[in-house]
Amino acid sequence: MLAKAAIAKGDGKFSIEEIEVKNPIGDEVLVKIQAAGLCHTDHDSLTWGRTIILGHEGAGVVEAVGENVKSVKPGDKVILNWAIPCGTCFQCQEQNQHICENNSPVVAGDNLPDGEVSEGHARLESTLYNGKGIERSFNIGTLSTHTVVKEQAVVKYNTEIPFSSASIISCGVMTGYGSAVNTAQIKPGSTVAVIGNGGVGLNVIQGARISGAAKIIAIDTNPTRLEMAKQFGATHIIQANRDDKGLKNATVQVKKITGNGGADYAFECTAIPALGAAPLAMIRNAGTAVQVSGIEEEVLIDMQLFEWDKIYINPLYGKCRPQIDFPILLNLYQKGDLLLDEMVTTTYKFEDLEQAFADMLAGKNAKGVILFD
């Protein structure tokens, strides 16, 4: 069948073009995408130096399945998941499904030669662009009207939820919530500081609120995002100054709010290398700093910031176990505890993807979502 997809060529640009999608075989599933969330990583992938189908957040409906697929059937609603566990490697056996050694596009992908994809990716020849197989971003390529993925890349659900809200679970929501709940394991009554209140940071705030944190301090330079932070659970806000090197002034304010000892937990959600050490400065002795955003550059840190007994951790994808965590998130949504509809600030048509990226980079949205129907 013919479909349309957002194609990145690796030079910073993209175009929406026609692709050919094959019927699924074996353990593959063909999904008609209904909605795709947008993330800064999607924009970053424009410059990855290779031709790919964009997108790694999404929800849709199963159209066809391969002969070995057991968990879903045509007509099922599914959330796409890019951290695809193999179930047999060392990390999967240790319940670290998010860093699967065989299927992860992040972990396994680092060890692959150019032009090859991880085992979590469906056959390249299942999707053709100009007659040749094309890679799907993070194994799933959700900025496409249709996608062929492995069975483990889909999580079936029956919850009454708009596709737009379901689509954002599979990266931004899971990363933020999971970093707070699965990684930091925030305790009730604790104090939390969150640096950067975009889509991921807002979900750290939600995770902290759901965990019972007493004080949740939102820190951002953007006043619009600080107002959003209040809606999602922040009890205190600090409007940071871009000239505040390492957020030293903001750190002083955090310590005043927390009784001068520092926060129990602090989360960095900006991906700005200069702020890599900031959460360490904001936590008390024996506190926990979480580098959520995935800074992948050299950062110089004064080791005195670790004094004393501080923990600094850099988790991937909120330690996601898709078949376990997605149902938990949907249950919290049903109960009214996890705000998802409110997080979708703006929806866009597929042809307005350029504007959607621009709005994201300008900080206008908590989450922007592409709707296909």
Account of the 3D structure:
By secondary structure, the chain is of the alpha/beta class. Helices cover 23% and strands 26% of the residues. The protein has ten helices and 19 strands. A hairpin with a 5-residue loop joins strand 1 and strand 2. Helix 4 runs parallel beside helix 5. The two termini are 18 Å apart.
Blueprint (SSEs and pairs):
Blueprint: E1 2-8, E2 14-21, E3 28-37, H1 40-44, E4 52-53, E5 59-65, E6 77-80, H2 90-93, E7 127-129, E8 132-133, E9 135-136, E10 146-150, E11 154-156, H3 163-167, H4 172-183, E12 191-195, H5 199-210, E13 215-220, H6 223-232, E14 236-239, H7 248-257, E15 263-268, H8 278-282, E16 283-291, E17 311-313, H9 322-335, E18 344-349, H10 353-361, E19 367-371
Parallel strand pairs: 4-9, 12-13, 12-15, 13-14, 15-16, 16-17, 18-19
Antiparallel strand pairs: 1-2, 1-4, 2-7, 3-5, 3-10, 3-19, 5-6, 6-11, 7-8
